[in-house]
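Honest question from a wet-lab person: if I give you the sequences of every part of a complex, can you actually get the arrangement of the whole thing, not just the pieces? Trying it with mine:
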Amino acid sequence: MTQTQGERKAETRALLLAAGADLFADRGIDAVSVDAVAEAAGRTSGAVYAHFGSKQGLLLAVLDAWKQSVLTVLFAEVAMSDSPLGQLAAVWDNIGNNPDTDSDRWSLLEHELWQRATRDPEVADVLRARSVESRGRSARELSRWASTMSVQPVADPDDLATLVKALLTGLEMQRRIEPDSVNCDLAVRGLAALLGMPPVPEIPIQPHHRVNATPSLTTHPPRER
Amino acid sequence: MTQTQGERKAETRALLLAAGADLFADRGIDAVSVDAVAEAAGRTSGAVYAHFGSKQGLLLAVLDAWKQSVLTVLFAEVAMSDSPLGQLAAVWDNIGNNPDTDSDRWSLLEHELWQRATRDPEVADVLRARSVESRGRSARELSRWASTMSVQPVADPDDLATLVKALLTGLEMQRRIEPDSVNCDLAVRGLAALLGMPPVPEIPIQPHHRVNATPSLTTHPPRER
DNA sequence: CTACATATATAGTGATTCCTATGCAATACG
DNA sequence: CGTATTGCATAGGAATCACTATATATGTAG
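Yes, you can. This is the full assembly:
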């Protein structure tokens, strides 16, 4: 039952990071006090300062954890759908179509971080690096995808990835303000246009495949061994 | 030299609203204290509470002023460009291509408000209403535009307006993180694809027309008469 | 000229926040 | 088994914030 000190330390760190990500996404970074994070993690503010030194330190650590866990999945798991349009639908489904899921909270956290990056160069640097890497990955996926289907996208893979990400981001934001104005069909039409596919006929959407590989945002302390 | 009480009151209100919009956009709503707004307006916090009752009241008043002053210009003034691609370039130019301008700060404020709307239903309602109206306007412009040029957009005007706005929003966000990854050419290609135009050749962009009708965000107190 | 009304300034209060200094109990180690 | 170390808790300080209560000065009306 007793843990080594290293184990307890790692568990505390993981709990704090999970609680931080959760609360930051939920209430907004500024509205979350250090004590709130600590309490949500079942610890006290002392633990936060022992681990991260400051609230900004906690934020950067959360950012780091976020960095290497999201959106890797964006295109990686899409190939499981059969039809090309079904694949596009699956993409949208993972980004913006499922409220109250983990990916929903991740995207809220992403917005929170984006806004922070607007004023905090330290955060902006991390986001920029992540953006480059993520775009590279998407670009590779997209160019493979475009060559297997014979379509002619509107730009080279790197730029195309930027356009796709931008459209998805914008649609997801619009969905939060006015949910009815954005649906899967619309997202698919937009994506298809960017990808240079022929115009989409009516009601072409098959039932979606939920890609369930998004890492959990809530507590996932390292399994005790 | 002496003003009537009504004049001074109106001037103070305008000063406070301008200072509020400015500071909210610049530093973020939560990071701005009531005293900071008052001081920037050359008044004290007492004036803020006399006029708006609370910080939230000030925010809603700023929101109201913002509501009826932005993005009306989005498509309204675009027709002045000659070539179709030049028109698209002008659209992007007004949204996301000019840092450190008034429209730049307005868009920062818009993001600030969007984020707020995520948690504050009062703000969300206003943004939703504005979104509906703005989309309607854009849809009308777009359908006229699409019929004069003979192109076949990827969706009906209302949905098309949503796609266009989403793409522009997403690109503008990306530009703030990684300015080099977004340029006018890219925006034009994306827009052209959504509008169903034939693929854009290389380097088709002519010098942009700066549409200078965005209302100023900084102080514009009612002219004394 | 006087009495009132109003717009804004001033001063202060309680609540909240981030962070520091220190204490303590459990583990690590010789 | 005793000492050192470590991980975290506890308590509190200084700053900031939204907001209130009251004062003041200036315009307004009779």
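Two things worth pointing out. Chain B has two domains: 5-62, 73-194. Residues 204-215, 218-225 of chain B have pLDDT under 50 and may be disordered.
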